[in-house]
Design goal:
This protein is mostly helical. Among the domains are: 228 residues, MFS general substrate transporter like domains (Growth Hormone, Chain: A); 99 residues, no CATH class. Helices cover 68% and strands 5% of the residues. It is built from 25 helices and nine strands. The protein has a five-stranded antiparallel sheet with strand order 7-4-5-6-9. The two termini are 41 Å apart. It is a multi-pass membrane protein. Belongs to the glycoside-pentoside-hexuronide (GPH) cation symporter transporter (TC 2.A.2) family. GO terms for molecular function: sucrose:proton symporter activity.
Amino acid sequence: MPEGVMIVPTTDSKVLRTPLTLVQLLLLNSIICGLEFCASAGFTYIPPMLLKSGISESFMSAILGMGPLLCFFIVPVIGRASDNCMSRYGRRRPFIFVFSIGLLLSLIIIPYGEYLGVFAFGNGSHSKAVGVVLLTLGAILLDFTSQACMTPCEALLSDACKYTNQQDRCFTIYSLMCSLGGCIGYLITSLDWKSSSIGQYFGNQEKSVFSLLILLFLFTMFATICIAEEEPLSPIEVKPSDKLYLTPNNSFIVKTMDDQEGLTVGVNDLGYETSSNQSLSDDNCNNFPLSLQPSQIVHNNEVSLHNEKSIHNERSLNTNKSLQNSRSSQNDRFPIKKSRTKCDEALTNEACARIAMRVTAMTKIKRIIHSIFSFIALKIYNVLPSTVKNILQIPLVLRKLAFANFCSWTAIMSFNLFFTDFVGQHIYGGNPNADETSHLSHLYDQGVRMGSWGLFLHCITSAIFAAFIENLCKTFGIKATYFFGMLSFTLAMLGMLLADNPALVNIMASLTGFGFATLTTIPFILVTSYHEEKEFFYCDINFQYSTSENKHGFGADMAILDSAYFLSQVILSLFMGSIVSYTGTVLSYIIVAAIFGIISCICILNVITSKQQLVSHMNAQKDPNKPNGCVQFMIL
């Protein structure tokens, strides 16, 4: 058996670690392959099974949108929770295991829901209703768990490859396994299991496929969980009544109420790291007490314990010196007048009038308008969901990447979700609502099968291209590779609008694999590189020392990228049906994909991939109200 991958909690140490072998990388990514083939194969059968159970198409669309909607609100919470998980099994593996159990449960409920209803209520109307409910819950559970499990898996990969100079290779294999999982899923569903011995044993096609998925996923799940050997996160608890003091060397001293010991904690341990040029150690703010929230937990392997008596004496001396320096500096800057008579005489009525004239009516109006808008913005912000608040509070570089990721996923999912319907109706001229024995229904089924082959080619192209992304990023750069992937996708969508031949349409579909490969690789590479230089790339949110609930670790940042993916599915589920009904043509699917592909290409050009680009961007902004630590930071 290959040697396990020891994954330690993220620290500020930037010492290079031992690179991972190819076998280790493949085993770490094996669960990604399992999630993909379960999702792709499962959702090939779920829509027909829902329709056969008597559910309408509109309600079916709502059911298929529930999973991404739950992910959008829950996954960011899961990401932050995994960053602070203190289980003895590690930070990521407990979440991976729980979601995997949920996915396995859904794979059992979906094909056997009807039999569970009969077993519970016998042959009657109640058993059929229970079977439909279980099928619906199983579909939502499969959609939710297969997507939510991606976030701790991605964070696990980032933890494993940090400071190994293997980010490109790690997420290249991640993209490769995603594509391989899609290929396996579509291949399993395309085979006729009903006439085989497996089909005769399980009873029908659906039960055979889902049973096979259970066995394959168990193998991939245990391969990843066993190969990843995470060290548990060691907590150092801070009581709610403790005080936090800032020392001259930019460290925080935690003064406990036990009067026994204090904890010295670096500024960089609380929330985002700070840049070296933005120091809080001013003479007049030494040992300034900061209140701690009950949920604040400090994680630091280099926490030094100090004797309480020495800390108290040092703080008293520093406080006295600070007060003396503060008084002397204030006296130098603002000399105190011994008599207010001269000042009163100098301040004549005419001078007062001139000063008052400076505050014009326009200035007052501007202040009033600014206050009104600030008040409204604050009220709106307070009622926003925590997921949206976290997106608004993310660093500049991550915000730009997340928006580009959202536009890219909206374009690709508009193609992936509706491509088979597009081929069946527009290319073959079929009708999904026609009688099952009619010619139009036969044409539609033919188109759906042909569209499935197009998606299979899409996965093949993505898998092949993923193998070259690492070298392309080194040769042409990350941004150029990302831009090429989405540009090729956009051109394929435009070509698909002009094509009316099934073979040509499938060729265009195969070209979309370039965009999918880059989208499942490059954003995660960038997030990992941001974390390796967090004090630079996250310098625009300095001093936001935060609690464990809103601290952005790997899990939280990966959840932000995944939220863009979930949001794209939710929006498409809500609006694409109305758009097609309004336009009267399924070409709207491809048009929307092309439009968002163009927008994503523009957004990719604004993504920050290097220190030089961030410095140039901050210089171009020239906002005097923002700290200039990003601009002044020394590029080592």
